[in-house]
Amino acid sequence: MQICVVGTGYVGLVAGTCLADMGHNVVCVDKDADKVALLRGGGVPIYEPGLEHLVHRNTREGRLSFTTDGATAVDNAEVAYIAVGTPSADDGSADLGGVLAVARMIGEAMTSRTTVIIKSTVPVGTADKVRAILEETAKHPYDVVSNPEFLKEGAAIDDFMKPDRIVVGFQHAETRPVVDRLYAPLVRSGKPILYMDNRSAEMSKYASNAFLATRISFINELALLCEKVNADVDAVRRGAGSDSRIGLRFFFPGAGYGGSCFPKDVKALMFTAEQANFPLKILTAVEAVNEQQKTVMASKVLKRFGGDLTGKHFALWGLAFKPQTDDMREAPAVVVAKTLLEAGATITAYDPEAMPESRSHYLGETIGYAESPAEALDGADALILMTEWNEFRTVDWDAMRERLKRPVVFDGRNIYDPSTVRAAGIEYYCIGRP
Ligand code: NAD
């Protein structure tokens, strides 16, 4: 099928590349000319395991190309995806400026029947808004499909290629066979395409992210209670999560959720609920707990070293909001770094992928960057671990003690065994474990 994907970010680039790998002809569009030039030159602007190889192969084999020219890409495309960002506006609502601008461009540029698929995460009612724009602009038949994306950064290729389900909101009967053909290679393993109305599909995405955020805030709040009552949250999560109704996955305490999705999607769903005069009490608490949780590691450091950190130096392992990505949007590491810098500390960080992102968009040169995890430790008063990259999991504690000025470790992801670390002569702080 001839496909165009507008918005070549984490979702658009992964979706476009995977669709090309499934045999479709895909043109990826982005308004960012530098990004398009980089992709055309063989570069890949984001870190996502396995992506570069697939981009190269499909480009080489002629199924994948990149352009800034949306109108030409839409011309003759049977399917046009909208995969641009939907960031939080000041009032917490999802900013639909990009989505609606792209809808208008598609409407004006289409030259035959086109299935317009909204991949971006958008609030209930957006498909209706897109339809209204196409009603005004399109000279050919169309349908608007709400097809939210559930991929996880760091495992995006696998998630796209082997989805648990594909949610498809639609209106016209002609659309189903188009979507069936489009995704046929993905559902051979028996995973379903769930057809429904547009509004329910839009809501499904928010329901998923809001529920996952709720699990995290729930276990995070319990972890803090465990600290107060001297229980071990790790044992508690196993004790409770082993119930098959609850489950152990996605049930780890940590330094708060971040990333480009949970914070903004929770806010957007709360906004939708307020507009409907039905404020969501649970999500209000989920968000408040998360804001508090992002400050927990910095509070532990301040408690240990006193409020004034002038002259103190810290090693920071991990900047990305989670492992296997260079994405630092809403990363708890940024909150921790800024709090410690404000208190007078200096910081040297190491992250296997996110340091360029930190330099250009987040912490700049307010902190130092090391070439290796070990180098970051040199002369530091403590190590603070904020992202659970695999390479941080196995540690030579003797070597660490040698490099640190003081043998103190703050583990914001509970990846070390407290008794092992303490047996190595290291003062150890974690979350919710005695
Ligand atoms: P992103 O910021 O990485 O990428 C968006 C891209 O769209 C950028 O490259 C930007 O230049 C481009 N763009 C914006 N306006 C444009 C326009 N008018 N024409 C052409 N290009 C334009 O965003 P993302 O992380 O890929 O997220 C996209 C959507 O997918 C969001 O709604 C997000 O909530 C949703 N989503 C993201 C993830 C994730 O893990 N990142 C997962 C599921 C869903």
Your description of this structure?
By secondary structure, this protein is an alpha/beta fold. It has three domains: 2-196, Rossmann fold (3-Layer(aba) Sandwich); 205-292, Orthogonal Bundle (N-(1-d-carboxylethyl)-l-norvaline Dehydrogenase, domain 2), CATH 1.10.1040; 294-429, Rossmann fold, CATH 3.40.50.720. 44% of the residues lie in helices and 14% in strands. It has 18 helices and 14 strands. The strands form three sheets. Strands 3-2-1-4-5-6 form a six-stranded parallel beta sheet, sandwiched between helices. A six-stranded parallel beta sheet has the order 11-10-9-12-13-14. The protein has a two-stranded parallel ribbon with strand order 7-8. Helix 18 links the parallel strand 13 (408-411) and strand 14 (427-429). Helix 13 (296-305) runs parallel beside helix 14 (332-342). It is globular, with a radius of gyration of 23 Å. It starts with a strand and ends in a 5-residue tail after the last strand. Bound molecules: nicotinamide-adenine-dinucleotide.
Distance between the termini: 57 Å
What small molecules are bound in this structure?
Answer: nicotinamide-adenine-dinucleotide
Q: Characterize the biggest β-sheet.
A: 6 strands, parallel
Q: Strand portion, in percent?
A: 5-15%
Number of strands: 14
In the sheet with the most strands, the strands line up as: 3-2-1-4-5-6
User: From the alpha-carbon coordinates, what is the Rg to the nearest angstrom?
Assistant: 23 Å
> What's the structural domain tally?
3
Which structural class fits the helix and strand makeup?
Answer: alpha/beta
CATH topological fold name of the largest domain = Rossmann fold
Roughly what is the average pLDDT, rounded to an integer? 97
Q: How would the global form be characterised?
A: globular
The CATH superfamily of the largest domain is NAD(P)-binding Rossmann-like Domain
- What's the tally of helices? 18
User: Which range best describes the helical content: under 10%, 10-25%, 25-40%, 40-55%, 55-70% or over 70%?
Assistant: 40-55%
What's the architecture of the largest domain, going by CATH?
A: 3-Layer(aba) Sandwich
CATH class of the largest domain: Alpha Beta
Uncertain stretches of 5 or more adjacent residues: none
